Amino acid sequence: MLALENREFYRRIVVAQNLLFSFIMLVFLSGLYKNKNMNDLENYFKQNTGRLIDKWHHYFEIYEKHFSRFRGTEVHIVEFGVSQGGSLQMWKQYFGENCKIYGVDINPHCEKFAEEGIEIYIGDQADRKFLRSLAEKIPRIDILIDDGGHTMRQQKNTFKELFPYVSENGVYLCEDLHTSYWFPWGGGYRWPFSFIEYSKRYIDNLHAWHAASWCSKPLSWGLKVSDFTRSAHSLTYYDTIFVVEKAPKLEPTRSETGTRTIPDWSPPWLIRLKAILKVLGIKIKYPTMRD
Ligand SMILES: C[S@@+](CC[C@H](N)C(=O)[O-])C[C@H]1O[C@@H](n2cnc3c(N)ncnc32)[C@H](O)[C@@H]1O
């Protein structure tokens, strides 16, 4: 009788043990759970129960594309727009213990979000003097994220003053470009003073070497090779985000390899012009797509 009771007692202990083990495993695995369709930043954002973060959902894929190469390195990140401090902590977690984060905001209360690896600067990003003083205080900018007030003046002044300070292989990312279409922020569709309209001149600047050809000169005389031409590798526009990837650049060169086997096509007007010039004995160098 006693033996039977003992057996029942031990059976119950084993069942309780199994239940406890299953419960611990469930808690452990749910902590490890990550949605495989989301990148690390998106996972962090979705699971965030700490300080508030305010981001459009499609930004995470863009961040991953442009920022992932800096993970685990001693990267220096400046973010305009601290708000509740949540995004600064997200960057710290994503880039790792060697990163240095500088949050900039007009709201003096944001100072309380300073901690190890995170410095806070208070000032107005529309104020070019403040921006210049900021550039002197921060040792290096590898990534600049403009998520501040999003007015045209703030976005333009921040780009004008701080783009040159971004390191030679760094990234400049300006978000919430939709305010370029919102008049209270100073925007408007094709409004010449919007940030989007302003940023389009950098598409020209990226191509400035090609404006040196004689066939472009009369109409492109204002387009000159600048520091931007020599330092910007690419401009990428996404829905409401603008990214400039920097990389030192030399004048582009080209050459041909292989053998031409058919005559090149020429427009009829050019054939006639060539014939007339030949009769007149005039020789000129015709521009081609390869010039
Ligand atoms: C969109 S929130 C930033 C969100 C934050 N980066 C995040 O992901 O959670 C915009 C922030 O920009 C700040 N801001 C507004 N105007 C500013 C200005 N002129 N200069 C600097 N910061 C400004 C606001 O105080 C606010 O904290």
Give the CATH level 1 class of one domain.
Alpha Beta
Order of helices and strands: HHHEHEEHEHEHHHEEH
Q: Give the class from helix and strand content and strand pairing.
A: alpha/beta
Assigned CATH architecture of one domain? 3-Layer(aba) Sandwich
Task: Give the overall form.
Answer: elongated
Query: What is the CATH topology of one domain?
Result: Rossmann fold
Q: What's the helix and strand layout?
A:
Blueprint: H1 2-32, H2 40-47, H3 59-67, E1 76-80, H4 86-95, E2 100-105, E3 118-122, H5 128-137, E4 141-146, H6 152-162, E5 166-175, H7 195-206, H8 217-220, H9 227-231, E6 232-238, E7 241-246, H10 268-280
Parallel strand pairs: 1-2, 1-4, 2-3, 4-5
Antiparallel strand pairs: 5-7, 6-7
Helix pairs in contact: 5-6
S-adenosylmethionine binds next to strand 1, helix 4 and strand 2.
